[in-house]
Each structure stands twice: as structure tokens, then as C-alpha cells.
Amino acid sequence: MKQLTTIFLISFFALNTYAGIFDWIRPGDGGRPPRYPGGGHSQVTCSATDNGWEEHWGGHGSCRECLKKHGDCVETCSIKNTTCTAEGVDYRGYKMTVQGRSEYRFDAERDAMDRCQYRYENCRITNCSENSEQVSRRSCR
Q1: C-beta neighbour count of 111 within 10 angstroms
Q2: Residue 10 has what pLDDT?
Q3: CA dihedral 9, 11, 15, 17 (to 10 degrees)
Q4: CA 74 to mean position of chain CA atoms
Q5: Could you tell me the superkingdom of the organism this chain comes from (predicted)?
Q6: 33 contacts: CB under 8 Å, gap ≥ 6
Q7: What does the pLDDT read at residue 29?
Q8: 23-54 b/e with 16+ CB inside 10 Å = b?
Q9: How far, in Å, are 25, 30, 107 from residue 20 at the CA level?
């Protein structure tokens, strides 16, 4: 029984080591945090606005600030992220595209290149764009 347990443990650790080295689990993941608030995202920004002209200039930094000057405010939170597209060539010679996404441009480029190089050859980044995605909206009352 002791030998069986020892063999099992050695096999388990060896498999985990090789899976990490050769990226068998999921190429390009890198153990990054989740893409929504509460997951440690530094790119989440929130602002509070009333229903008048304020919503055109960005509003207040918090519900408390907004409620000091207005009776009814809405807080909106959004996350900024970057999407990059990489282009590569498949085994038949056709151009193929993949996308990578992250809160930082460098990580988005790396993610796109990792995904492209996993399946295709001659990969290169063709474009990147910054996006803002609304993640929450609530009344300040």
C-alpha cells in the first residue's frame, strides 16, 4: 500500500509539473484574476450623476458627493479593458485571427499572441482597442 501511494504521489506531482511547463491546462491564462469587481481589478471606475446635464461631463466621484448637491443620483461603474487581435497562418495557408483581452495592453497582446501561436504560425498583432464595459448601475438612495 505504501508503494502504491508513493507511486501515485510521484505521478501526480510529475503530471502537474509537465502540465505547467507545457501549458496543457489553458494556454495564456497565467492565473489572472477574474474580470469583474471584487476580483482585484484596478481598472474599475465609478461615477455618480443626476438625471440632468451632469451626465455629459462625468459626474461626481461618489454617491455621497452627488447626493450633497442633488436629490436623486445613479452610480455607474465600468471596467476598462484592451482587446488585441493577432493574425496567423494555419496549416493550409489560410490567414486566421484570434483575440486576447486583458485590463492592460501588454497582457492583451501577450494573450492574443499565446492563443495564436498555440494553433498557427507567423503570428503578429494586427490591432488593439480600448473598451469600457459597464459592470454595475445602482441608485444612490
Answers
A1: 24
A2: 73
A3: 60
A4: 26
A5: Bacteria
A6: 39, 40, 41
A7: 44
A8: eeeeebeeeeeeeeeeeebeebebbbbbeeeb
A9: 7, 10, 19
The amino acid that residue 73 corresponds to is C
Cell matching residue 30: 497565467
Strand-pairing partners, residue 124, are: 87
Give me the residue spans of the domains in the chain.
41-139
pTM (2 d.p.): 0.55
State residue 106's pLDDT score: 95
- CA dist., res. 113 & res. 125, Å (int): 7
Characterise 57 by phi-psi region: left (phi > 0), alpha (psi -120 to 50), beta (else): alpha
The helix (H) or strand (E) run that includes residue 64 is helix 63-69
